[in-house]
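seq:
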Amino acid sequence: MKRIHTEVILGLMVSAMVLAAGCKKEYGTVTLGVTIDNGRNAKVYIDDVTPCWHNNDLVLVNNQTCTTTSALGATAQITNVAGNDHYRAIYPADIVGDVDISSSSTIAVTLPREQQYEVDSRGDQKVKVPMGAYSSSERLTFHNLCSLIKVVVTNRTESDFDLERITVETGSAYLSGLGSATVAGRSNDAVELMSSSSASHEVSLVFPTGNRPTIGRGDRDTYVYYIIAPEFEEDNVSITLTSTLGQSVTFEKRASLRHNRMALVSLTVERWDEVPPSSDDWVDLGLPSGLLWATRNVGATSPEDYGDYFAWGETTPKSVYDWTTYIYCNGEMEEEDYDHLTKYCNNSSYGYNGFTDNLTILQSGDDAATANYGGRTPTKEEWQELIDNTTAQWTTRNGVYGRLFTSSNGNSLFLPVAGYRGDSSLRYAGDRGFYWSSSLYTDDPSRAWNFVFLSVFQSVNRDIRDDGLSVRAVRSAQ
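struct:
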């Protein structure tokens, strides 16, 4: 009996080993179901809208870069993932360096100092909020690792502008750089930036060409989002807005931020700070006054581009240029009935109800160059200085006719023959150039001085204020 009992035990042991071998988990590729946690303490609230997946979002799962599919709001799938007994994942994948994320819940990550503004198919900003997930099953729930700052911009300047960059800087809190992310599948998982030379108190949102939002005058709902480190106590915050024309303005604020929360900062742009000269935007012709001249017309993208047209004393282009649309005229200015001016009038015969103010030079708030480029519109005398101290030549630039003004220091300035706008028509484009000065023609305040030229002629002249002419800016060298 003892021998038989031994054989039975051995047989049972062999059978158990066979069964155990048959139950061993085989790893291949799997499909993961991924969800963004909508718990109060486990996501960033973006104006009460739950963050959502997009198809082809890049997610790092263990050490494999994967893409999301079947995205539907807060849920999506990740296919062809190497199977494992656990999964640790981070989104977006590019915040993780060359490290093994599968073996530890603490992972080195980098929050970029410059974030690129992106939009989705609906034209809304695509905010890549960093998230992490950990699971021993094939379903992963992602928790937020960072926080957001929402910047709301209101434009109360005289014209629309396009954003090129917004920079946020704190007095002591770190906002970007190298840090460590805790990814353990908990709602309090977070990024903590390391206090080192790689951490920065500054972060910028950059608007690439084609994705630059236009901030219209009076807009109160133009807003963008920043991703920053998850927490800092109340701190001094400097926020600098820069337009595509190089204009900038800085705001000083107090702000505080907690993990999984969004700080709101409202900015109202009423005027731009002074803009330093740029070699691309200004040219030094060695003039006696020391003035720098803009290298292109207001509203232009290159020296040969015509740019925009402005009535004298107005700062925005329009479709019709006549007295009925002119900002400083109350009614229609007729040949024998010119008494309708409401600003820049030194003669009561031209002023509305005898109005005079004796203003003879454009104020900065009425200067198209100041509002749209920087600097100001040149005076009548400054146009004459340009004529007297340069050699002018009729020429073409990239197929566009104009005059090239060359100074004794070898630098030059090109003015295209952009014509002018009267009523709703563009006239003399390609044949004559008409450029406003900032000087009123005091013998007839319905007119202002301008610079006019064609192939065989150039002169400081005067024109009706309601016409739409080109504007070229000047500024001091300091």
